[in-house]
């Protein structure tokens, strides 16, 4: 856990290296609110108001039986995701009282459906935990895999979970009615979000869903979505048949699946309109609404108006990446070109200012970092770590006999 002074230290380092990231300017033009409490919470506070909207998120239960190297990597990845979800749950309880949280805890076909230490922590943080297997897990072939490290092959079940929410609706209908939650419009987010303000369902009718953009392309980003689950129920048979025909070969996993099915003529990342237009649209409900990214899908690498943000999304760089940046700065591995243009550039851009590149940390070439990126990211990391410390303290206190 980094000290609260980390942001001041980063700003001083940027100034001493004549970086375009001027923290004084960032503070003046885009002040960042302090949203995580400074003091421990002994018990979960009751919701500030009666929830009116179901909020679904999902995580995958860590797998066992992998090789030693794969197990260590996957376990670390899973624990980071579970940590992010603890932060999301606590921040929602404190700042988004209109939400009733539901955690879809995904199990593989080999895992018995059972609660564990994490699911009990999620319950202590106010979530209703749904033990679940993807209804279409057997259709996901070995071709649709993710490879986070060379030689590591696994199906990332979590990324497909939002496509299965409509299948949960019939079993939850009575409960949602008893809780006076909207019967079919829900919020879905990835686990890696922080709530800064309350979230209510869109005032406009929602025939399909509402989603923001990738930010670096015109494609939709499915990390934060308002979904009409009745529509997804009606469309499910055709949607699944379409995915099976394609062997789940989608350029951007479930995002491209959604985009192809509901509006194939919209431009997709990695392909032009000609390619997209060849996808047959069989949906009876067409298109979707666009979310205000700065409010509902705020990202630190963009120049977002921080006080407008309701949901921050760690889309792209994660808390572990920001920790890597700080460690590189402390160790001296952070290159000068990550601060500013170098003197004596040869005109070909080889020494051009490129934040993060060549630091030894992950670098996404498609993500163009705004001038205040480091200021915002370090602030969010400190909020994340403070929320996580509070959540762990709260869960440990609740678990004491």
UniProtKB/TrEMBL annotation:
Which InterPro entries does the UniProt record give?
Answer: Nucleotide-diphossugar_trans
What's the protein called, per UniProt? Protein xylosyltransferase
Organism whose genome encodes this protein: Prymnesium parvum (Toxic golden alga)
């Amino acid at each position: 856990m980094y000290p609260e002074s980390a942001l001041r230290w980063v700003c001083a380092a940027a100034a001493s290296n004549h970086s375009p990231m001027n923290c004084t300017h960032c503070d003046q033009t885009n002040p960042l609110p302090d949203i995580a409490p400074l003091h421990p919470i002994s018990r979960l506070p009751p919701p500030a108001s009666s929830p009116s909207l179901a909020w679904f998120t999902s995580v995958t239960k860590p797998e066992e039986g992998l090789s030693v190297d794969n197990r260590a990597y996957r376990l670390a990845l899973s624990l980071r995701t579970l940590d992010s979800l603890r932060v999301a749950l606590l921040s929602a309880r404190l700042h988004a009282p209109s939400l009733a949280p539901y955690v879809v805890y995904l199990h593989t076909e080999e895992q018995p459906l059972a609660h564990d230490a994490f699911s009990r922590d999620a319950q202590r943080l106010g979530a209703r935990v749904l033990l679940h297997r993807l209804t279409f897990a057997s259709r996901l072939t070995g071709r649709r895999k993710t490879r986070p490290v060379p030689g590591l092959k696994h199906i990332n079940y979590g990324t497909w979970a939002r496509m299965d929410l409509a299948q949960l609706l019939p079993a939850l209908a009575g409960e949602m009615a008893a809780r006076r939650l909207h019967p079919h419009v829900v919020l879905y987010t990835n686990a890696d979000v922080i709530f800064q303000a309350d979230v209510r369902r869109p005032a406009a009718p929602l025939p399909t869903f509402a989603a923001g953009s990738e930010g670096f392309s015109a494609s939709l980003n499915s990390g934060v979505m308002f979904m009409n689950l009745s529509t997804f129920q009606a469309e499910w048979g055709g949607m699944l048949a379409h995915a099976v025909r394609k062997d789940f070969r989608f350029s951007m996993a479930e995002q491209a699946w959604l985009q192809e099915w509901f509006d194939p003529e919209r431009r997709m990342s990695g392909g032009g309109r000609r390619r997209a237009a060849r996808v047959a649209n069989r949906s009876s409900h067409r298109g979707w609404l666009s979310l205000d990214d700065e409010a509902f899908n705020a990202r630190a690498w963009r120049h977002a108006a921080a006080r407008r943000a309701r949901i921050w999304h760690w889309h792209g760089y994660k808390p572990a990446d920001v920790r890597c940046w700080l460690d590189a700065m402390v160790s001296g591995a952070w290159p000068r070109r990550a601060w500013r243009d170098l003197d004596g550039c040869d005109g070909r851009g080889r020494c051009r200012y490129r934040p993060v590149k060549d630091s030894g940390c992950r670098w996404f070439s498609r993500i163009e970092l705004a001038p205040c990126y480091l200021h915002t990211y370090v602030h969010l990391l400190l909020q994340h770590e403070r929320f996580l410390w509070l959540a762990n303290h709260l869960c440990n206190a609740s678990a004491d006999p």
